[in-house]
Structure formats: C-alpha cells, structure tokens
Amino acid sequence: MAGTLKSVAVYCGHQYGNNPEYARDAKKIGQMLAEHGIKIVFGGGDVGLMGTVATAALAAGGHVTGITTHDVLAKQEPMHDGIDAFEVVNGVNERKQKMFDLSDGFIILPGGTGTLNELTDIMTMQQIGETNKPLFFMNTLHFWGPFGRLLIHMKNAGFFVRPEDYNMHSACTPEELINKVLNY
User: How many C-beta atoms lie closer than 10 Å to residue 168's C-beta?
Assistant: First the structure.
C-alpha cells in the first residue's frame, strides 16, 4: 500500500438506489480496498450498498469491521456474516464516534440522510479543527453534484467561508477514487 490510510469508514446507503451503477461502483470499491490491504469499517448490515461493499471486500480477502446500534438490531436488519469484527453500540452518535475512531479516512458513496449526516459530521469536525481525516466522495452518476452546488451556494451566501478548512476529494470512477486513497 502506497498511502498512509490503513482503514477507511465507508458511508453509503442501506438501499441500492435506482440505478445498478451505484452497486457496481460499491462492489468495485470494496474489492479494490481489500486488494490494497485497506481495512473497511461500515454500518454492519448485509443490505444495500453497505452490504455490497462488505461482501466484495470479503470475497477479495479483505478485513471488514461492522458497527451497528441496538435500534438497528431491534428492526431485524440482517447483519453481515463473515466480517472480522462486529460491535453493537447504544445509538447513532456512539456509532459515528466508533467508526471515526477506527478509521483513518472516509469514503462517501451515494446514500440518503444517514450518509449525509455522517459526512457533514466529519465536515463540521474538519471546520472546527478537530480532525483533518480526509473525505473521498464517489461521485457515481454525478450523485454528489447537487451537494457540491449547495456548498458553492453556501460559500456565495457567506456561510461556507473557508473552503481550505476541509479535506475533501472527489472521484467519478472507483479506480480514480482508489488512486486518490492510495496516494493520500
């Protein structure tokens, strides 16, 4: 492995979305992270894109740690079999903190409000100087384009004052994303 990142949290949807390219890229990312010896930390479920990433990583001989909450278990969401480590925590904030602690960086795939919450927490921590751990956006089908435009709008309106406070990287293909992770 060429870079300094030994583990990454992968934030993404517990759904597949409405285009098979989302799952295609999730699978490639899981596989490539494993092939390069980068450990994955994820939400623990065997559902949606998160399950796709974990399954691909495991099939490629990777190491995967799942972190979930009692609430998710209560909903009978299937947990992923075969992962190296699994931890159940008390709530979403404890889950995010545990995933943060176990990761050197973060890969953001398409997802919903949970994914948005996770990435904006990291951005807020970057803004106030609590972390400089990098965020890598997988911009499949330009999924994160509207978010980027929102950040530009916030900057133009005077609310996103210092873009240099953020350690964010974007890629349009899994290969480009992994290259950025490996060369970080």
Answer: 18
Q: What is the CATH number of the domain that holds 22?
A: 3.40.50.450
| Number of independent structural domains in the chain | 1
Residue 69, in any domain of the structure: yes
Q: Which domain holds residue 77?
A: 7-182
Residue 2 lies in a domain: no
- By the 10 Å C-beta count (0-12 exposed, 13-18 middle, 19+ buried), 2 is classed as exposed
DSSP string, 146-168: HHHHHHHHHHHTTSS--GGG--E
What string of pLDDT tens digits covers the 184 residues of the chain?
A: 457 999 999 999 999 999 999 999 999 999 999 999 999 999 998 999 999 999 999 999 999 999 988 876 656 667 888 888 988 899 889 999 999 999 999 999 999 999 999 999 999 999 999 999 999 999 999 999 999 999 999 999 999 888 888 999 999 999 999 999 999 9
Query: Using CA atoms in the order 47, 52, 53, 59, what is the torsion angle rounded to 10 degrees?
Result: 120
